[in-house]
Each structure stands twice: as C-alpha cells, then as structure tokens.
User: What shape does this take?
Amino acid sequence: MSEWLAWILMTLGAAFLLLAGVGLFRMPDLYSRMQTATKGSTLGIALMLLGVAVYFDELGVTTRALLVIFFFFLTAPVAAHMLGRAAYILGVPLWEGTIGDELKGCYDKKTHRLEDPFSGSSSHGQSEGRS
Amino acid sequence: MNGFLWNILLALAWAMMTAQFTLANLVVGFGIGFLILLFARRMVGLGHYPKKLRQAIELFFFFIWELIKSNLRLAHDVITPSHYMRPAIVAIPLDARSDLEITLLANMISLTPGTLSLDVSADRRVLYIHEMYVSDHDLEAVRRKIKDGFERRILELLR
Assistant: This one.
C-alpha cells in the first residue's frame, strides 16, 4: 500500500520536474520562464520527498523530508523574487503578448528605489501625505 | 502561535509517557493535547487558539488547492502548442503591514504558479506581481483575487 503511494508521488514529482524543464523551452520571456522553472520544480521536489517519506516510513526520514520541503518552500520564492527584480531593473523585455505593466517607470533610475504609484492619487484611500 | 507550541509540547509529553516515538503516536498526542487546550483555554489564556488553528489549517489547504489548480493550468499551457496566457505586471495595494505578513503573502504568491512577486515598494504599501493569466484585460480582477484569497486569510490568521 505505502509502496504504491510512494510510487504515485514520485511519478507525479518527476512529471512536474519534466514539465518545468519543457516549460523552460516553451515560454516566450524570462518572467514566464521563471514561473514554470521555479514552481514546477518546487512542487516536483516536494512530491518526491513526500514519496521518500512514505516509502521509508520512519520518523527520522519523515521529519528530515518535511524540513527539506519547508526550507525549499521558504527559499525558492526569495531567489525568484531577486532574479525577477534584477531582470526588470536591467530592462529584460517582456513578451509582446503582455497586456499591462504597472511597474513601468516606478523605479528610480539611479538608486533603484521603488516608488508607489498610488501615492499621488487618492483612489486607494491609503495615501496620506508623504514626500 | 503560543498555543501551537504548547500543543506540540503536550504531544511530545504524550509520546514520552507512552514511550513510542512514531508519527502516528505523535498525531494522537497532538489530538489529545488539542482537546486539553480546548477545555482549559480560558484558564491558560489561549482563548483564540482553536479558532487560529482552524484558520491555519484552512489557509494550508487553500494554498495546496491553489498550488495544484494553477500548476495544472500552467502544465496545460506548456504542453499545448498555442499560448493561452495573458501576462501582466500588476500593482497590488497592501493591507499587510508587518514584515511577517508581507513576507508570508509574497512567498505564497510566488509559490503559486502563474503569479510571481517581483518587488515591494519602498514604503511597503504596494506589492508588484507578475500574473500569467489576466482574463479580459481586467487587472482589477487580479487585485481582488489576491486580496480576497491569500491576503484576507493571512491577516485573519496573524491578527
């Protein structure tokens, strides 16, 4: 029973890792590539580790697998955020099918300080007077 | 959070008393510890703990559900030859204020495929995300989805 469950989890995990790899080729720009590459692989690795935990069925292995998943889920988004931010500041172009870019012109050219587009308008109700 | 630590301690105490350090026994200990805390919550000053635990579990399953749903949509787009995606960078005004709230929200957004948090404005009032599937050119709908989904649940849990 647990062997079958492990088999299913690992196959699913491998499938998601494969999808992440294919997505890397298929997607048109850096941002959408990062979407498939970071998320697909995170879910794939989580499923594989769950499969390992189910297969061995020992407390030591299970806690270690869960901890690895936890730290993976904690660190992967940070890496993706830093890569995306760096790419945007360097001016990596968005795909031509992109329908909106509300980040445009918000970065200070020199300091890379990010201003808030709503601070000028009062439409969002949270804009008390700031410099 | 405090209540959760107490519950874990009670689970460990149960495992030590019964001298069986298996996962199943720890889960049983956690359940018994939860019942004890449920009955004694007024005395030990953990009145909100049962509600918070329920909200945490709800957030967890909501997150897993979003993860699976959006992964399948992205997988479909990767496999089929044409692109269905309509990506856009959307600015989301934040109600979350503390470091923990913003970090948790940004991380959960990043982990769900289709949305990727790019940056937070210097005054920490706006989060910029890259969203893959904007239907009908409606950026407001994306804002609403994030605010009603992840942000509302996270704020309910942490406040």
Remarks:
- Chain A touches chain B through 51 residues (CB under 8 Å).
- The CA atoms of residues 49 and 70 of chain A lie 11 Å apart.
- The longest strand of chain A covers residues 100-101.
